[in-house]
Amino acid sequence: MSAGGTLIGRVLEAAPAEPLKRWLLQQSQLDRLGALFLLLTALSVTAYGVIRPDYRNWDMVAYVATALENRYDDPQQLHAETWAIIEPEISEWQEHHLKYSNPYNLHQWENPADFQSQLSMYRVKVAFIAFVRLLEPLVGTLSAITVLSALSSLGIGLLCLWWLWRADALQSSVFLVPLLLVSDYSRMTAAAYPDVAASFVSLLAIYMLWRGRDWAASALLFTSVLFRPDNIVLVFALLITAFLFNWRKLTFIVTFLAALATDLMIFRALDHPGWWAHFYFSCVEMQNSMVGFDPDFSLAAMMKGYVRGFMGSLQSNNWSAVLAGLVAGWAALARHGRMTAPRANALAFALMIGALGKFASFPLPDDRFYFIFTTGLALVLTASWKPRFDRAATA
């Protein structure tokens, strides 16, 4: 081919690329791509959670049993009915894992009375159990847990999309989506935990606070405590923030006192073993039976729980690294004058101390316990930052 032909070929190859490049680098197109990226992620995570739910999680067995407690008082019958629901829905290797993978699981499989004693730590998630029972006639007990997680997960994704759209920050999806995934969004959706529903309600409350709708946020915060009583840590963090940042305080005082009173009533009415016994069980040493379990307070045992949680957070989970990166990003954005949205700095502060307070009150290392804090902080920061790749490309 001649030099002229080669040149014409190059021109023809380059010609459609430049208009395409200009089209792609328009703000509207990049915003649409960002929205599509976030939407497809939420839909994919939700679909995967429905198609491939994580039935290796032993807590799922306890939540199924808790949903059935109002029908079966006898431990033997409750145990039998629980497994009669679970066994047809799980694979052989999942069943083996749930029954025989460790001494604790084996003991709970072989001892119905001890199994029933574990439920005192699960039944306090009253809203979660209530929704499972509400959905049960439609889809079955086990599928009700999966459906509730899936709907909550999709709600989280759509709320993130709505928030970024309202903040004119859709292009920040390129940063938010990876953070959601490393913060346990997908794995948490597939497992039978109340954390997804609690996170959706809490995230909606934070959005309402970002919009300045305090009473609506307070109602949602109170509801989140019914899904997870320990979400009172977030309520308390916001109460502290209200005083330090001169918000209207009455709303948060009322919410905190109502949540605290409700927690105490739930714990007493549903025979929760108490903070220290639960701390010892979860953070120090698991107990085959919770009947009469009332260990003496031990500073050494408490420190063992914190060390175990700290090392687990660093070695097997991401929340601490994600939180550190987000706090550094907060400092950088504030220094460059980007944290100008109403309440942005106050909400960032509340979510930061909330994550630290969550660990301080109960040092479990799993990312799902801190998802609301890391995701909420990420949304506050990206809504303030509003990155624009179309401007960067032009520059």
TrEMBL record:
Keywords: Membrane, Transmembrane, Transmembrane helix. The chain crosses the membrane at residues 33-51, 126-151, 163-183, 190-210, 216-245, 252-270, 316-334, 346-363, 369-385. The keyword Glycoprotein does not apply. It comes from the Bacteria. This is Glycosyltransferase RgtA/B/C/D-like domain-containing protein. It comes from Chelativorans petroleitrophicus.
